[in-house]
Amino acid sequence: MSDLLIEILTEELPARFVDNARAQLVEHVTTHLDESFIVHGDIRGFSTPRRLVVLARNVKEQTEARTMEAKGPARASSYDAQGSPTPALLGFCRGQGVDPADTYTVDVADKSYIYARKTVAGQKSSELVEAFLPRLPHEITFPKMMHWEESGFQFARPIRGLLALLGVEVLHWEIAGVQSSNTTFGLRVGKPKPITVASPEDYMRRLREAFVIVDPAERRRLIEKQADKLLKPLGFKLGDNMSDLLDEVVNLVEYPSVFLGDLPKIATELPESVVRSVLQQQMHSFLVYDQNGNVVPHFLSVRNGLTDFIDIVRRGNESVAKARLLDAAFFIQEDMREPLEAYVGRLDTLIFMDKLGTMAAKTLRLERLAACTTVYASVTPEEEATLFAAAHLSKADLATSMVKEYTSLQGEIGGVYLSRAGGSPDIVSAIREQYVPRSPSEDIPATRVGRLLGIIDKVDTLTGILATGFNPSGSEDPYGLRRAGNGIVRTIVESRESVDLEILVKKAVEGYQATGSLPHPEDLQQKVLDYLKGRITQYFKEKQLTREFAPLEYLPLVELGSIPERMQALHEAAGGAVLVTLADSHRRIQNITKGLPAATSLPADLLLTDPEELVLRQSAEAAAPRILQFLAVRKYPEAIRTCEELAVPVTVFFDRILVMATDERVRSARLLLLCYLKYILGLVCDYSKLT
Amino acid sequence: MNFEEMVSKLERFWEDEGCTRLFPYDQEVGAGTLSPYTFLRVLGRKPWKAVYVQPSRRPADGRYGENPNRLYMHHQLQVIIKPPTTDIQDTYLRSLYLLGLKPAEHDIRFVEDNWETPVLGAAGVGWEVWLDGMEVTQFTYFQQAGGQEVPVVAVEITYGLERLAMFVQEKKNVYELEWHEGVTYGDLRQQVERENSIYSFEQADIEALVTMFDLCEKESQRMIDKKLITPAYEYLLKCSHTFNILDARGTVGVSQRMAYLARVRRLAYGCADLYLENENHE
């Protein structure tokens, strides 16, 4: 048994690609080893900004001999009339290296085929590995690839070295003009010196000596430990939710050394969000907080290299931080010479999206949508006024120098400027929250107007993107379509907000018509609604919530926000015997009325005569208005209980009545009754999906 | 080390690496990439190694000579190597060591930064190089030029000379840099910065510039039709600079802006096609 080590040495890979590329490498090496019948132990991936590494433990030097069965031609075409082997059989045997006499027949689905069994001798693992090594770099894909030499081979960045060792044996391979060797390179410090590696264990040791820690988990631990050591004695800590930034920093260094820098005085005069953007996004550094969660005038950063001369590195970073913060302060000061309102007038110089007109047009559409108050249940006149004012100012900050320079601060900067100018706190928070949630882990807006502004902005964006004829498919989300869709669904469901999406989407389409940019208006409203329904289904699937509400077949979209409460009510009712009967009844109703539309009412002269069907009609007509009433005031347990009252009459009906009567008029009357029940029950949930 | 010494050292370094040292192109450009020494030479298959300083004008970045970091015109040292050598990153790092930067004392990083100039149909992938957190160089592998995938990749190394000099001389304000012993950057440039900022933000005659753009575009197109690449490209550069002033003047609306860029791009593609046609004839 030996260990197998493979290293692809590159120029600096984009940090955001590294984790995924490492996972791909591990996956492909595992597949190749298994497909080559090489017995191996644990397989682990390692990486730094400059290398992708995989280590397979306890790889057997030889594969076992094994027997293989191969399927040949049909028996009918394998022997001629004289019983001699045909060219087809002979060809097969030659290919498999067996004698025709050693073949046998197997019947596969009424037909006989020739089979051959052959023994494959054990092979040297090193040869098998050498056979798949050159394929590995081809199999790793990146979101953005490049070419750099004449073969045109594509990778994220140029490959500069290849290394593979099976125990002490050096394996040979070649890709994009690079020959493998038994050497690698350490941390970039001065003149590069090749390091000769004797074995996989030697690789880890040698690289550590050359200041490279190949295990990203270890680098992460080191950063955390060093940060702790610096911050704890001072009573400081890092902020929450630093995991993403930490992941990025881990992939920016081969050997981390943490240092604490001082922030310039100007930092205290700037909004925290601005300081955070400058440090985290532009400098990949961390803000530092005291125990009460207040920012302190320091930042924490990670050097790629040793602690020697770290004061020089710290001073350099401090002056960069100072220059950038001064720059930001300058922008804010310049921007604030005018009120936020003044920037609304400049939105006609900014394109919203290709083919979709300017930000000024978008602002007009948002104002229109904000004014459609029938869409949002129970908004107060104050909320209505705030929403309109916030919609009017929502995009203004895009025209400021600050947001042009720091795009991720959109919304935030508008809020800061308005707040500093003494604007209404409600409008300020709505402007700040309009882009929230930006990621699946971020909470939805805290204020009602913020949520509504976010929803109308996203519905407008979604409608626009689909209007360009863009066809959402695959895993890519180039225009943020999925993010917008998920944001709408999450905001409504998680806030229990009642928003009539059907009308909102209709108004959004009209808005584009009014502002004169709608390249593909065909079926747009339906396309948007279908897309949203898809996101809703996906949302409930991902949350692994029950299926009763996922189809939304009967549930109007306006009820999206009520789903969690309905689920809670259903959860409480679950387990009762009546609910089981009801589920069964709903299923039977759906089966027999398949393809028929739900009926929202029954005609007075419906041809029903048998007592069981009359009872059912009576019960249904008595229950319906009460169910509607309960739903209107969101009393879901009561609505469910009222549905449950129908369980017995439905069961009795199905037991005694033959729905598919020969008399067509009787049959259709009974079906109509059931279609009415389908409607009533469906208003609450799809009980048939209960198990 | 003053500014001119630093520039000489870098130029000499790349000359020793086999690059032809050229003088700055004698026309206004927005970046070293627009010089025909880069834009035309990265096209096609012919090898090319060059180093040159290129003053680069970005009217919208002008700050009346009052901002310590932002300039109407800054200086780039442009290195183009086609095809790139396999140790190009190490070679670049050695050029920094030559300026007295000791590798053990600093944190030098290659941080992902992909670059594109839509106006030239050019794009590349690479990094910005950080020196203790400060971006001092743009390091790019050309992938496309003139709207086409390049058949042979060129590497473009663009040093921001003011940034680098501020680092080397430990100065916080660009105007305090020493250019020559006893002569500061401010002595040479501050008044010029002020005047050019006033011109491009306040004084530029919009109507005249619009006419100039039209005339230069026409002349460039006429030369493309005559298959004279150099004059065609030089008039394209005039178009590009004229547009940059109009842009800084704040008079170009969004759709207009797209239209102007498309007009320059069409000329760029025309020049690129001619250049490639020429190379194929040789």
TrEMBL record, chain B:
GO biological process per UniProt: glycyl-tRNA aminoacylation
GO cellular component term, pick one: cytosol
Entry-linked InterPro entries: aa-tRNA-synth_II/BPL/LPL (IPR045864), Gly-tRNA-synth_heterodimer (IPR006194), Gly-tRNA_ligase_asu (IPR002310)
Entry keyword set: Aminoacyl-tRNA synthetase, ATP-binding, Cytoplasm, Ligase, Nucleotide-binding, Protein biosynthesis
Alphabetized SUPFAM superfamilies for the sequence: Class II aaRS and biotin synthetases
Gene Ontology MF term list: ATP binding; glycine-tRNA ligase activity
Catalytic activity: tRNA(Gly) + glycine + ATP = glycyl-tRNA(Gly) + AMP + diphosphate
Pfam families xref list: tRNA-synt_2e
Compartments, as annotated in UniProt: Cytoplasm
EC number: 6.1.1.14
Oligomeric and partner information: Tetramer of two alpha and two beta subunits.
Listed PANTHER family: GLYCINE--TRNA LIGASE, CHLOROPLASTIC_MITOCHONDRIAL 2, GLYCYL-TRNA SYNTHETASE
Similarity annotation: Belongs to the class-II aminoacyl-tRNA synthetase family.
Protein's name in the database: Glycine--tRNA ligase alpha subunit
